[in-house]
Amino acid sequence: MKYKYQIITLGSDVKQKQEILNQINIEIENLDLPEGFVKVIQASSIETEYIGNQPAFALYFGDVNGDFKDLNVTQNLLKDGTMILPIFYDEFNSEIPSILSNQNAIQYKKSEVNRIANIVLEAFELLRSTRKVFISYRRAESTSTAIQLYEAMEAKNFDVFLDTHSIQKGEPFQDELWHRMTDCDVIVLLNTPGFLESHWCKEEFAEAGAKQIGIVQLVWPNHKIKEIESSSQISYPIQLTEDNFVDKVIDHKAKLILPFLEKVIQEVESVRARNLAARQDNLITEFRNIAMKYNRIVTVQPEKFLTEDLPNGEHIIYVPTIGVPQSSSCQSAEIKKELMGYKDVSIRLIYDDLRIRDKWLKHLEWLNDNFKKDIKTLKKQDFESWLQKV
């Protein structure tokens, strides 16, 4: 591949560096990206290996003794506008050099390795920068656990939907709920004994299946529901025991013990990349199948987008977009345009419009009519009519 995503490693040569790079490789495999998609560059090799016009992200590994390395390289990357993530262990001020004092840092913990890997992928526009989670539960059985999860994940910078906390006054409740579900990355489902007895819980579960959204399923002690495990295409069940709850109390006021709560959040972070990749693949497959039906030659690129070369010499790039297209989707599209080296090119952000609220669909159509001509959105229900055009 001529076009590489570059990860630059700076600072101390610590064991944590390889752990994080290994996790990045795992997430790249989960996204089904080609081998060699990302190039790791050591600070000592930056003059010979670094390419300035290709995406780059740097990780600066701090030093517990304040022995800071690669300061000149770090300074040059900052001047170039390269994003640098400082990683410290106990104390930011003593372990990270002053030239990075204004950068948002992250403290290394085993539980944060997935998150660090995903921050890198987000910077390359390979994952959405918003980390959207939807909590599905039955109020009569698990309200306290749901609120506990909501607060814990919000603290970890997830954008969490919980019906009692996330719908503004005056909004149509059910429309907003379906909209937020379709725009989420992962569903955390609290599988309590009476979950499927609730009409709305059953509806939420069916909706997740229709949208092919991954589910992290917390199965209450001594309770299993075969229908959930068999119906969802991407379901990751975690069987709970009494020991997972504070004081082993299991009722609507029950809360999870903190170590187990941390484990759940790690699983949500891990599932996120796999689920987004699966939904992206499904969107690509459906679009390509319709294109073949009308003899449109659409090519799937290794970086998970599609291209079409028209007889008149124009080019179209189709970028699969999960959830509601945002401004960050346009930034990702610009990267694809640069990657292909096209000059005369238009871009279509293709997305599944099922359950997206009408006001958003109308807004996206308005943007199509009034803003940048070379980047527009194309919803799933219009794939056929668009591809029928000669």
Produce the secondary structure layout.
Layout: E1 5-11, H1 15-30, E2 38-42, H2 46-49, E3 56-61, H3 71-80, E4 83-88, H4 92-95, E5 106-107, H5 113-123, E6 132-136, H6 139-155, E7 159-161, H7 163-166, H8 173-182, E8 186-191, H9 199-211, E9 214-219, H10 226-231, E10 235-239, H11 258-293, E11 298-300, E12 306-309, E13 315-321, H12 327-340, E14 345-351, H13 358-370, E15 375-379, H14 383-388
Parallel strand pairs: 1-2, 1-3, 3-4, 4-5, 6-7, 6-8, 8-9, 9-10, 13-14, 14-15
Antiparallel strand pairs: 11-12, 12-13
Helix pairs in contact: 1-5
Pfam families: TIR_2
Keywords: Receptor
InterPro entries: TIR_dom, Toll_tir_struct_dom_sf
Low-confidence stretches: 228-232
CATH homologous superfamily of the largest domain? Toll/interleukin-1 receptor homology (TIR) domain
CATH topology title of the largest domain:
Rossmann fold
The radius of gyration is 23 Å
Number of folding domains? Answer: 3
**Helical content, roughly?**
40-55%
Percent of residues in β-strands: 15-25%
Q: What does the main sheet amount to? A: 5 strands, parallel
Estimated structural class: alpha/beta
Helix-strand string: EHEHEHEHEHEHEHHEHEHEHEEEHEHEH
Strand order of the largest sheet: 2-1-3-4-5
Principal-axes shape call: flat
Number of helical regions: 14
What would CATH call the architecture of the largest domain?
A: 3-Layer(aba) Sandwich
Tell me the name of the CATH class of the largest domain.
Alpha Beta
What's the rounded overall pLDDT mean?
A: 85
Pfam families: TIR_2 (PF13676)
Protein name: Toll/interleukin-1 receptor domain-containing protein
Domain TIR: 129-257
Keywords: Receptor
